[in-house]
Design goal:
The structure is a single chain. This protein is α/β, with parallel strands linked by helices and 223 residues long. It has two domains: 31 residues, no CATH class; 180 residues, Flavodoxin domain (Rossmann fold). The chain is 34% helix and 19% strand. The chain contains six helices and eight strands. The strands form two sheets. Strands 3, 4, 5, 6, 7 and 8 form a six-stranded parallel β-sheet that branches. A two-stranded antiparallel ribbon has the order 1-2. β3, α2 and β4 form a beta-alpha-beta unit. The N terminus is likely disordered.
């Protein structure tokens, strides 16, 4: 915990007009910083073992700053969601939600299917949001990135995913955006990015995501 003293300049203009002293009075605030290392759950939007997005995810974990640890959250065994399950959630779905809940932040690495997010990924998100009132995605720091062989690099699919995550109240990093056109050999078998320009961009993306996660998880209690 870091404690500091700041001037009360964040008061609204109308409040300052009513109470001029607010701007000169010192306020003591407690800034509660999350204890590291940060645990980041990686959700890969393709179930394919040979997915280029799986390769991209492996590369990203190696480009992140120190203090961040990554683990994959699998959803391959989830059945298709329907509301009948709400009364008696299957164990596989409970385990999935527990894995999401255990993460400090989430990184989605996903392809684009038919100008949208993959169906299996959407199904997993639905499981995580139910039963009503038990939405596990709420307030999680989230990063979104994806790769495809096409020139627009999952841009439309990411927008579809972001719309869903926004409704579920996830704390999404809105910039930088990252739409990766994947070419053969871009990521080698050891998870190294072979194009220096792309490697530098991905490193910057992961640095920005790390900084964003720290900001979201740093709490200033309100009196």
């Amino acid at each position: 915990m870091v404690t500091g003293s700041v001037f009360g300049l964040i008061a609204g203009y109308s409040l300052a007009k009513r109470s001029p002293w607010v701007q000169s009075e010192r306020m003591k605030i407690d800034i509660i910083e999350h204890e590291g290392p940060y645990q980041v759950g990686v959700i890969i939007g393709s179930l394919s073992k040979e997915s280029i997005n799986r390769r991209l995810a492996n590369a990203l974990t190696g480009l992140a700053p120190e203090g961040f640890e990554f683990f994959e959250i699998s959803y391959a065994d989830l059945p298709l969601y329907n509301r009948d399950f709400d009364a008696d959630y299957p164990q596989v779905a409970l385990d999935f939600k527990d894995a999401v809940a255990s993460a400090d932040a989430l990184l989605f690495v996903t392809p684009e299917y038919n100008r949208s997010l993959p169906g299996a990924l959407k199904n997993a998100i639905d499981w995580g949001s139910r039963p009503w009132g038990q939405n596990v995605w709420a307030h999680k720091p989230v990063g979104v990135i994806g790769a495809s062989s096409g020139a627009i690099g999952t841009a439309v699919g990411q927008q579809s995913l972001r719309s869903t995550l926004s409704f579920l109240n996830a704390r999404q990093m809105s910039a930088p955006e990252a739409y990766i056109q994947y070419t053969p050999g871009l990521v080698d078998d050891e998870g190294r990015v072979t194009n220096p320009g792309t490697e530098d961009f991905l490193r910057q993306f992961m640095t920005a995501f790390a900084e964003y996660t720290v900001r979201v998880l740093t709490v200033i209690p309100q009196s």
